[in-house]
Amino acid sequence: MHYLFAVYCVQPIDSNLLKLLIPVAVCHALGHVTSNVSFAAVAVSFTHTIKALEPFFNAAASQFVLGQSIPITLWLSLMPVVLGVSMASLTELSFNWTGFISAMISNISFTYRSLYSKKAMTDMDSTNIYAYISIIALFVCIPPAILVEGPQLIKHGFNDAIAKVGLTKFISDLFWVGMFYHLYNQLATNTLERVAPLTHAVGNVLKRVFVIGFSILVFGNKISTQTGIGTGIAIAGVATYSYIKAKMEEEKRRGKAA
């Protein structure tokens, strides 16, 4: 639904930029689809705990794909994130492989979306980038949606939902979910234009702190003690990374000023 809000493209696009944006759009579509599959399969808090691994995937891609050197101190600061997510996964009450694997695929997809988006932003601003990748992603999603779901989407998807909550609430909820999802992703893309992909990933993890806490309060998701400890360790690892990263960037700025 949120793809339909991306109708404000104003900057023209050429074939070269389109080639850059198609991989971004594919990663964008795959990341969102697998995120929602994970949300459906496991507790929202658990999906976001798994997605806290995004900085680790981003660091790996930055170093081994883009060739950027990631200091050992930053790698070490990300180890608690991996440890914490592993602990949380072992005793998560809603754990199943569909939810876990879908969240991991989403991590990888969004990592490459960030990297490819950063490359495309050399020729186009972030607002236009996001509008174009959303529209392309819509066309990417339509064929598999028809093939996988087809008539069942109308019969057992829309009709069942409307029968349960009513047509007005169904349309209203779909609209607002699409609107907020779109605005969130637009803001994330605008932020990516101004920061490094790895820093952007860390911001995403801090966001998950609020989402995890809010989902526990609103949905009443029960978590085990070990899951809570693991989530806390993962968040602490992100905080450590943020501190080290900020300190390194400050030293770099001072060096340039000198």
UniProtKB/TrEMBL annotation:
Residues 5-242 form the Sugar phosphate transporter domain. The chain crosses the membrane at residues 20-44, 56-77, 97-116, 128-147, 227-244. It is found in: Plastid, Chloroplast membrane. GO terms for molecular function: organophosphate ester transmembrane transporter activity; phosphoglycerate transmembrane transporter activity. It is a multi-pass membrane protein. InterPro entries: EmrE-like, Sugar_P_trans_dom, Tpt_PEP_transl, TPT_transporter. One of its GO terms (cellular component) is chloroplast membrane. Pfam families: TPT. Keywords: Chloroplast, Membrane, Plastid, Transit peptide, Transmembrane, Transmembrane helix, Transport. PANTHER family: SOLUTE CARRIER FAMILY 35 (PTHR11132). NCBIfam families: tpt (TIGR00817). This is Triose phosphate/phosphate translocator TPT. It comes from Populus alba x Populus x berolinensis. The lineage of its organism: Eukaryota, Viridiplantae, Streptophyta, Embryophyta, Tracheophyta.
